[in-house]
Design a protein that fits this description.
Elements (H helix, E strand, L loop, with lengths): L37 H5 L26 E10 L2 E8 L8 E8 H5 L2 H16 L8 E6 L3 E7 L4 E2 H8 L4 H20 L12 E3 L5 E3 L18 E4 L5 H4 L7 H16 L9 H10 L10 H10 L15 H5 L9 H5 L22 H4 L14 H4 L7 E2 L1 H7 L24 E2 L8 H4 L1 H7 E4 L1
Antiparallel strand pairs: 1-2, 1-11, 2-3, 3-5, 4-5, 4-10, 6-7, 7-8, 9-12
Helix pairs in contact: 5-7, 7-9
């Protein structure tokens, strides 16, 4: 893929001009005593001796595997695996509906970057808990596959609603943007850059609230002022500093927010071309053209989010999201009501039941769900790469521990993982009249991560 972007940019296309004088960017490359006698300690009569077994090692952690879930529907699929709607058939949460993301180890392990991003996604979604971020419930593995069990978000993708409506009213966009901003702010506070914000990665729950998904392109451990150089994301929503590989930080997420806002209010991303090269050229050098029907506050916020010079971009400073939250476009927003989920969603999904899949593409949901067998399993040494993948959500453990019981011995244990419905999985849909911008192949080809 790298060769695709070894291009020369030139002036050729006619450029829509805006009153903004934004600069054009050129493409460029506790204490311990060492005197303690261990043998003496082991011979002490004060020690309790316990025979280790499955009953008392990591006691309290539910052992889960593919056999504990019944496949109901296919929600999406892609190069690395599938996403299923599943029903839990064992345990305290028997009968609960989840989304199960299945990834083939052999496909992931071929590329060191894919492996790193899969592990990072798993770790991020274990660590990050937020009202507007998808919850990871379980993670486990077999010899050939990785399984991520996520909360089932029956509202489907925000993309579906935007595709159906064409454009959103500003009040509608304001609702979704406010919840997304708080999700990104939480990630940034944890030192995480999201790097793949777009309508396909924003799911809605049964009430219509936002849940950010797909953490496969996130970058961890990014402190204030630090940059990374990985080329990743979806072209139409990529910040210029990613495209030029000049080093990027948290501000790339605010550029993507500006592109998403523009998309919501106009029906397409702000910079698009007939092919990748022209799209990149417009992102780096094109003038921003804003429709006359947008309010002055909406225009101002979009311009400030889509500043190519990072230091001029709203949200790029130490205040991060606070700069954006204080913008006049959100003057009617009570941010405490947002985080408390008190705002009324503009679209409430029309659902018949908790396992309704009507908001997902029938191309997948109408297909018989089969978790196909793996063609080969990894060696023991290769499998060590995924050591520590297993995870059970604290909420599940709390339910398991709700009943009083007698315990003779217990050893401490760790939990480790997470991801959204999407990942490398793509649903198929398009938004007219620019079908060349919205087809599944378009988004599949335009989502990259490289060194």
């Amino acid at each position: 893929m790298a060769g695709i972007f070894d291009i020369e940019l030139h002036d050729g296309d006619s450029i829509n001009q805006d009153e903004s004088d934004d600069d054009i960017i050129e493409n460029r490359e506790d204490e311990y005593s060492h005197t303690t006698n261990v043998n003496t300690a082991l011979e002490s009569d004060n020690l309790e001796r316990v025979q280790l077994s499955e009953q008392n090692v990591n006691e309290g952690r539910e052992k889960t595997g593919p056999q504990d879930f019944e496949l109901c529907k296919i929600l999406g699929e892609g190069g690395y695996g599938k996403v299923f709607q599943v029903k839990k058939v064992t345990g305290k949460d028997k009968g609960s509906i989840f989304a199960m993301k299945v990834l083939r180890k052999a496909s992931i392990i071929r590329n060191q970057k894919d492996t790193a991003h899969t592990k990072a996604e798993r770790n991020i979604l274990e660590a990050v808990k937020h009202p507007f971020i998808v919850n990871l419930m379980y993670a486990f593995q077999t010899g050939g596959k990785l399984y991520l069990i996520l909360e089932y978000l029956c509202g489907g993708e925000l993309f579906t609603y935007l595709d159906r409506e064409g454009i959103f009213l500003e009040d509608t966009a304001c609702f979704y943007l406010s919840e997304i901003i708080l999700a990104l702010q939480h990630l940034h506070n944890q030192g995480i850059i999201y790097r793949d914000l777009k309508p396909e990665n924003i799911l809605l729950d049964g009430e219509g609230h936002v849940k950010l998904t797909d953490f496969g392109l996130c970058k961890e451990h990014i402190e204030e002022g630090a940059v990374t150089h990985t080329f990743c994301g979806t072209i139409e929503y990529m910040a210029p500093e990613i495209l030029t590989r000049s080093g990027h930080g948290k501000a790339v997420d605010w550029w993507s927010l500006g592109a998403l806002m523009f998309d919501m209010l106009t029906g397409m991303p702000p910079f698009t071309g007939d092919d990748r090269r022209k799209t990149i050229e417009k992102i780096l050098r094109g003038k921003l053209s804003l429709p006359l029907y947008l309010t002055s506050d909406a225009k101002d916020l979009i311009r400030k989010l889509l500043k190519r010079q990072v230091l001029q971009r709203l949200g790029s400073g130490p205040e991060d999201a606070e700069q954006i939250m204080n913008h006049n476009f959100f003057k009617h927003i009570n941010w405490q009501d947002v985080i408390s989920r008190k705002l009324e969603p503009p679209f409430k999904p029309s659902l018949k039941s908790a396992d309704d899949t009507s908001q997902f593409d029938e191309q997948f949901t109408a297909t018989v769900p089969v978790d196909s067998p793996v063609e080969s399993t990894l060696s023991e040494s290769a499998n060590m790469i995924f050591q520590g993948f297993t995870y059970v959500a604290p909420s599940v453990l709390e339910e398991m521990c709700a009943q009083p019981r007698v315990v003779n011995a217990r050893s401490p244990h760790k939990g480790l993982l997470n991801t959204g419905f999407s990942g490398s999985l793509r649903s198929l849909s398009s938004r007219s009249p620019d079908a060349h911008l919205r087809t599944a192949s378009h988004f599949h080809q335009h989502r990259y991560f490289q060194t």
